[in-house]
Structure formats: structure tokens, C-alpha cells
Design brief:
With 123 residues, the protein is of the alpha/beta class. The chain is built from 4 helices and 5 strands; from the N terminus they run αβαββββαα. Strand 3 and strand 4 form a beta hairpin.
């Protein structure tokens, strides 16, 4: 995968090089609808470069995602400010999302009860 500027890439590289971790069953990654931006890029890198298993929901963002720096745009009628990324990672990953190996949906009753079914499945 093309290198994406990130402070987390050395961590991904270390996980990839360690045979105790980079093996089937050695690393489990929780993903879900809250993964976006750099989190999706790291998930995509882990998915392509390691033997990690993914548990949870698919990511809501493309694997070839947008990055900062961001530009703030104020909507004058509402006063809301949106922060819009100005570059793309350009890693060439065509996937629209990172799919979990073990799909686990988060439902509102779990959320409001403080349960994390993806973590429970991973454990």
C-alpha cells in the first residue's frame, strides 16, 4: 500500500514486522460506523499489510480517504462552521469501506445499556 503520512504508520509497521502479532489470531481490530478520516486509513493499512481480524461494523468512509489540513467554511445563514479536508490520501485503495471479518451490529439498546457487542465478540 502506498505510504500515507501519519504518526501511526510506525506503529502499523511494528505490528506488521512482529511475527507474534502479525499472524492469524494475533491481532483483532474493532471497527465501526465511528471510524473516519485517519482511523479508516489506519484500518485499511492494517487490513492490507497484516493478518489482523476485524470485528464490528463496516467503516463509513472510503479506504482512500480525505486528510487534513482542513479549511473551515462558515455557513453565514446558520453560523455553523464545517471543517473540510483539502487533500486525499491518494493510496489508491478502491474500497468504499473496510468490511469486518466478524460483523457485529451496534443497536440502540446495547448503546444505552453501555454494552459493546463488538468488544464482547472480540474477547
Amino acid at each position: 500500500m502506498a505510504a500515507t503520512p501519519s504518526q501511526l504508520l510506525p506503529l502499523v509497521d511494528a505490528l506488521e514486522r512482529d511475527p507474534r502479532i502479525n499472524r492469524p489470531g494475533g491481532l483483532t481490530v474493532l471497527i465501526g460506523r465511528e471510524n473516519e478520516s485517519a482511523a479508516t486509513l489506519i484500518a485499511a493499512t492494517l487490513d492490507l499489510d497484516t493478518e489482523a481480524s476485524f470485528v464490528g461494523e463496516m467503516t463509513p468512509a472510503r479506504a482512500d480517504n480525505f486528510l487534513g489540513p482542513n479549511t473551515d467554511i462558515e455557513l453565514s445563514a446558520s453560523g455553523f462552521i464545517f471543517s473540510v479536508p483539502t487533500t486525499r490520501s491518494g493510496n489508491g485503495d478502491p474500497r468504499m469501506a473496510i468490511e469486518p471479518d466478524i460483523p457485529v451490529a451496534l443497536i440502540s439498546s446495547d448503546y444505552f445499556a453501555g454494552r459493546d457487542p463488538a468488544l464482547e465478540a472480540a474477547l
